[in-house]
Protein backbone atom coordinates (compact mmCIF):
# COMPACT_ATOMS: atom_id res chain seq x y z
CA UNK A 1 0.00 0.00 0.00
CA UNK A 2 2.88 2.36 0.83
CA UNK A 3 4.59 1.63 -2.49
CA UNK A 4 1.37 2.42 -4.34
CA UNK A 5 0.94 5.72 -2.51
CA UNK A 6 4.48 6.96 -3.20
CA UNK A 7 4.66 9.30 -6.22
CA UNK A 8 5.88 7.38 -9.27
CA UNK A 9 8.80 9.72 -9.96
CA UNK A 10 10.12 9.48 -6.38
CA UNK A 11 9.89 5.70 -6.37
CA UNK A 12 11.57 5.46 -9.81
CA UNK A 13 14.43 7.60 -8.54
CA UNK A 14 14.81 5.53 -5.36
CA UNK A 15 14.77 2.21 -7.24
CA UNK A 16 16.89 3.51 -10.10
CA UNK A 17 14.25 2.36 -12.58
CA UNK A 18 12.30 4.10 -15.32
CA UNK A 19 8.96 5.69 -14.43
CA UNK A 20 7.13 3.32 -16.78
CA UNK A 21 8.54 0.25 -15.00
CA UNK A 22 7.65 1.75 -11.64
CA UNK A 23 4.13 2.54 -12.91
CA UNK A 24 3.74 -1.09 -14.03
CA UNK A 25 4.96 -2.20 -10.58
CA UNK A 26 2.48 0.09 -8.82
CA UNK A 27 -0.36 -1.09 -11.07
CA UNK A 28 0.51 -4.72 -10.33
CA UNK A 29 0.62 -4.03 -6.60
CA UNK A 30 -2.77 -2.32 -6.81
CA UNK A 31 -4.20 -5.34 -8.64
CA UNK A 32 -2.87 -7.63 -5.89
CA UNK A 33 -4.47 -5.44 -3.22
CA UNK A 34 -7.75 -5.35 -5.15
CA UNK A 35 -7.73 -9.14 -5.54
CA UNK A 36 -7.07 -9.62 -1.82
CA UNK A 37 -9.94 -7.28 -0.97
CA UNK A 38 -12.25 -9.18 -3.33
CA UNK A 39 -11.19 -12.46 -1.73
CA UNK A 40 -11.84 -11.03 1.74
CA UNK A 41 -15.29 -9.83 0.67
CA UNK A 42 -16.01 -13.20 -0.95
CA UNK A 43 -15.10 -14.99 2.27
CA UNK A 44 -17.38 -12.66 4.26
CA UNK A 45 -20.22 -13.21 1.82
CA UNK A 46 -19.71 -16.96 1.98
CA UNK A 47 -19.79 -16.81 5.78
CA UNK A 48 -23.04 -14.83 5.60
CA UNK A 49 -24.42 -17.38 3.15
CA UNK A 50 -23.54 -20.27 5.46
CA UNK A 51 -24.97 -18.41 8.47
CA UNK A 52 -28.17 -17.75 6.53
CA UNK A 53 -28.41 -21.44 5.64
CA UNK A 54 -28.05 -22.38 9.30
CA UNK A 55 -30.70 -19.82 10.24
CA UNK A 56 -32.99 -21.09 7.49
CA UNK A 57 -32.51 -24.68 8.67
CA UNK A 58 -33.20 -23.60 12.24
CA UNK A 59 -36.38 -21.82 11.20
CA UNK A 60 -37.53 -24.82 9.17
CA UNK A 61 -36.90 -27.18 12.07
CA UNK A 62 -38.77 -24.86 14.46
CA UNK A 63 -41.69 -24.68 12.04
CA UNK A 64 -41.78 -28.48 11.75
CA UNK A 65 -41.37 -29.01 15.50
CA UNK A 66 -44.66 -27.42 16.66
CA UNK A 67 -46.58 -29.50 14.12
CA UNK A 68 -45.16 -32.67 15.66
CA UNK A 69 -46.72 -31.96 19.10
CA UNK A 70 -49.38 -29.26 18.79
CA UNK A 71 -51.58 -30.65 21.59
CA UNK A 72 -49.01 -30.16 24.33
CA UNK A 73 -48.38 -26.53 23.43
CA UNK A 74 -52.11 -25.88 23.19
CA UNK A 75 -52.65 -27.35 26.66
CA UNK A 76 -50.02 -25.01 28.13
CA UNK A 77 -51.72 -21.99 26.60
CA UNK A 78 -55.17 -23.19 27.67
CA UNK A 79 -54.16 -23.63 31.31
CA UNK A 80 -52.54 -20.18 31.35
CA UNK A 81 -55.61 -18.30 30.15
CA UNK A 82 -57.39 -18.51 33.48
CA UNK A 83 -54.50 -16.87 35.36
CA UNK A 84 -53.85 -13.15 35.65
CA UNK A 85 -50.55 -13.13 33.72
CA UNK A 86 -49.75 -10.19 31.46
CA UNK A 87 -49.82 -10.56 27.68
CA UNK A 88 -46.02 -10.69 27.63
CA UNK A 89 -45.89 -13.85 29.70
CA UNK A 90 -48.51 -15.65 27.62
CA UNK A 91 -47.01 -14.73 24.24
CA UNK A 92 -43.34 -15.21 25.16
CA UNK A 93 -42.12 -18.53 26.50
CA UNK A 94 -40.25 -18.78 29.78
CA UNK A 95 -37.14 -19.75 27.81
CA UNK A 96 -37.31 -16.54 25.76
CA UNK A 97 -37.90 -14.43 28.86
CA UNK A 98 -34.95 -16.11 30.57
CA UNK A 99 -32.72 -15.36 27.57
CA UNK A 100 -33.87 -11.74 27.57
CA UNK A 101 -33.06 -11.37 31.27
CA UNK A 102 -29.78 -13.26 31.44
CA UNK A 103 -27.91 -12.61 28.20
CA UNK A 104 -25.87 -9.43 27.66
CA UNK A 105 -27.05 -9.24 24.02
CA UNK A 106 -30.19 -11.41 23.95
CA UNK A 107 -31.15 -10.32 20.45
CA UNK A 108 -28.19 -12.34 19.17
CA UNK A 109 -29.32 -15.48 21.03
CA UNK A 110 -32.92 -15.55 19.83
CA UNK A 111 -34.13 -16.98 16.57
CA UNK A 112 -35.99 -14.74 14.14
CA UNK A 113 -39.45 -15.94 15.22
CA UNK A 114 -38.70 -15.08 18.84
CA UNK A 115 -37.39 -11.67 17.78
CA UNK A 116 -40.69 -11.05 15.99
CA UNK A 117 -42.61 -12.03 19.14
CA UNK A 118 -40.55 -9.63 21.24
CA UNK A 119 -41.27 -6.85 18.73
CA UNK A 120 -45.02 -7.55 18.79
CA UNK A 121 -45.16 -7.19 22.57
CA UNK A 122 -46.22 -3.97 24.21
CA UNK A 123 -43.16 -2.29 25.78
CA UNK A 124 -44.96 -1.90 29.10
CA UNK A 125 -46.03 -5.56 29.14
CA UNK A 126 -42.52 -6.67 28.25
CA UNK A 127 -41.05 -4.46 30.96
CA UNK A 128 -43.50 -5.94 33.47
CA UNK A 129 -42.71 -9.51 32.45
CA UNK A 130 -38.97 -8.88 32.75
CA UNK A 131 -39.16 -6.71 35.86
CA UNK A 132 -37.50 -3.83 33.99
CA UNK A 133 -38.44 -0.22 33.35
CA UNK A 134 -40.20 0.65 30.10
CA UNK A 135 -37.18 2.49 28.70
CA UNK A 136 -34.92 -0.57 29.07
CA UNK A 137 -37.58 -2.80 27.50
CA UNK A 138 -37.93 -0.33 24.62
CA UNK A 139 -34.16 -0.36 24.08
CA UNK A 140 -34.28 -4.16 24.02
CA UNK A 141 -37.06 -4.10 21.43
CA UNK A 142 -35.05 -1.65 19.31
CA UNK A 143 -32.00 -3.94 19.46
CA UNK A 144 -34.21 -6.88 18.48
CA UNK A 145 -35.65 -4.90 15.58
CA UNK A 146 -32.16 -4.02 14.32
CA UNK A 147 -31.02 -7.64 14.55
CA UNK A 148 -34.12 -8.89 12.74
CA UNK A 149 -33.63 -6.27 10.05
CA UNK A 150 -30.00 -7.37 9.63
CA UNK A 151 -31.08 -10.99 9.29
CA UNK A 152 -33.70 -10.10 6.71
CA UNK A 153 -31.06 -8.24 4.67
CA UNK A 154 -28.86 -11.33 4.85
CA UNK A 155 -31.71 -13.50 3.61
CA UNK A 156 -32.35 -11.05 0.77
CA UNK A 157 -28.66 -11.20 -0.13
CA UNK A 158 -28.87 -14.98 -0.05
CA UNK A 159 -31.86 -14.98 -2.39
CA UNK A 160 -30.05 -12.57 -4.67
CA UNK A 161 -27.01 -14.86 -4.71
CA UNK A 162 -29.20 -17.86 -5.47
CA UNK A 163 -30.98 -16.12 -8.33
CA UNK A 164 -27.66 -14.91 -9.74
CA UNK A 165 -26.07 -18.34 -9.44
CA UNK A 166 -29.03 -20.09 -11.12
CA UNK A 167 -28.19 -18.35 -14.39
CA UNK A 168 -24.55 -19.42 -14.35
CA UNK A 169 -23.19 -22.84 -15.20
CA UNK A 170 -21.45 -24.73 -12.45
CA UNK A 171 -17.71 -25.08 -12.77
CA UNK A 172 -16.25 -28.57 -13.20
What does this structure look like?
- InterPro entries: DFF-C, DNA_fragmentation_mid_dom.
- Keywords: Coiled coil.
- It comes from Bombycilla garrulus.
- This is DFFA factor.
- The protein is built from 9 helices and no strands.
- It is mainly α.
- It folds into 2 domains: 56 residues; 74 residues, C-terminal domain of DFF45/ICAD (DFF-C domain) (Dna Fragmentation Factor Alpha Subunit, Chain: A, Orthogonal Bundle).
- α2 crosses α3, α7 crosses α9 and α8 crosses α9.
- The two termini are 35 Å apart.
Helical content, roughly?
A: over 70%
Number of helices: 9
Low-pLDDT residue spans: 68-90
Number of domains: 2
Structural class by SSE content? mainly alpha
Q: In oligomeric terms, what are we looking at?
A: single chain
Q: Supply Rg.
A: 26 Å
Shape category: elongated
CATH H-tier superfamily of the largest domain:
C-terminal domain of DFF45/ICAD (DFF-C domain)
Number of β-strand runs: 0
CATH level 3 topology of the largest domain:
Dna Fragmentation Factor Alpha Subunit, Chain: A
Largest sheet: none
Mean pLDDT: 78
The fraction of residues assigned to DSSP E strands is: under 5%
> Cα distance, first to last residue?
35 Å
Written as H for each helix and E for each strand, in order along the chain, the element string is HHHHHHHHH
What is the highest CATH level, the class of the largest domain? Mainly Alpha
CATH architecture grouping of the largest domain? Orthogonal Bundle
Keywords: Coiled coil
Region (Disordered): 63-88
InterPro entries: DFF-C, DNA_fragmentation_mid_dom
Biased composition (Low complexity): 77-88
Amino acid sequence: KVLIDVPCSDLAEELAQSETKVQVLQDTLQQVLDRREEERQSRQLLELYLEALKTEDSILSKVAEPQAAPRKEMDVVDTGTSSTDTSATTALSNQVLASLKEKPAPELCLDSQDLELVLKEDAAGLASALGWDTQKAGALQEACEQELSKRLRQVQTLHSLRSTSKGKKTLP
